[in-house]
Amino acid sequence: MENFTTSPEMNRTLGIWTDYSIQYKVISSLLLLVICVLGIVGNVMVILVVLTTKHMRTPTNCYLVSLAVADLMVLTAAGLPTITDSIFGSWVFGHYGCLCITYFQYLGINASSCSITAFTIERYIAICHPIKAQFLCTLSRAKKIILFVWAFTSLYCVMWFYLSDIQELVYDNITIITCGYRVPRKFYLPIYFFDFGVFFVLPLLLSAVLYGLIARILFLNPLPSDPKDKKKNGHNNHTINKSTSCKNSRHSSSTATSRRQVTKMLAVVVILFATLWMPYRTLVVVNSFLDRAFLDNWFLLFCRICIYLNSAINPVIYNAMSQKFRAAFRKICRCRRKGSDKPETSMVESTDHFTTELEELTVTDELLSEQKMMFPDSCVYGKVNFSDA
Prior knowledge:
The protein is mainly alpha-helical and 389 residues long.
């Protein structure tokens, strides 16, 4: 994340250096350590769940893996070094540590923003344009998009190898080593505002528009009813079509519920991203117009905690709002008996292909009629539980 250190111009008249208070060191170190450890464990579990569980390898979950990797990068490159700064009050990782850690901080931040934008667009296409989604929202295309996101952000963040460097702040009573900037703070304003616009404002505006369109489809449009299906069926096949229509109705209702649940979960991720990043982004913008930056230690700690919470809380959201993630988490943690895991796993894995494909379609009369032609005998699929992705 962007450094909060002052520019060299402001460090020429430094008075007596005052160390952090014991209260600040204890509180900041414990809070940051707990958040970072829980966040690292949670994001590693998300990655393991998707990579080791066959039915979890969907396009949306691939973007969540990309987000989890970015969050891991933020927690390890930004969170853990902040703990040492709170304890020692000085930079302890040297020159190359400053360059690499600053690079990975920005890389994780920008990659997480791009990953959120990517899965928002993917959900919009899958729900609002189901025909296009059949060849746009595929696993192979998701992997290519993720590869492009990381390639782009990796190249974009290379500039921080040249812009960041360690500084010696000479006080009256001590010399402090910090990881700061090579040039005065005013030269970083274009970069700050470009990051603020491209990696924060633009993704949030796009997400607001797309989730509004998704909500119109999922929550305002009624599902097709049985009478409509009956009118489309012939009189001679009345008995058979009645049974098929009831089962298709159950498919439609369960799939729509699944989509609503997945969309709510992803929308919560976006809302928390906006809320928890807002204090820090606001501070950067405000400091850009101040002659002397506002650097209150407790407020900086609050901003940092919000950022690290954003990177650590996503696995908690998945566990709370997704039945499949919750079951997969329990399986990895071995919290349930092996005997109870086997039937559930076999059922889910046997229907993973049908569930994954059906998740990408929007429930409409035309699509349901096409499914009736493709699957005239729906007895097998009537028992499938279409829970969240």
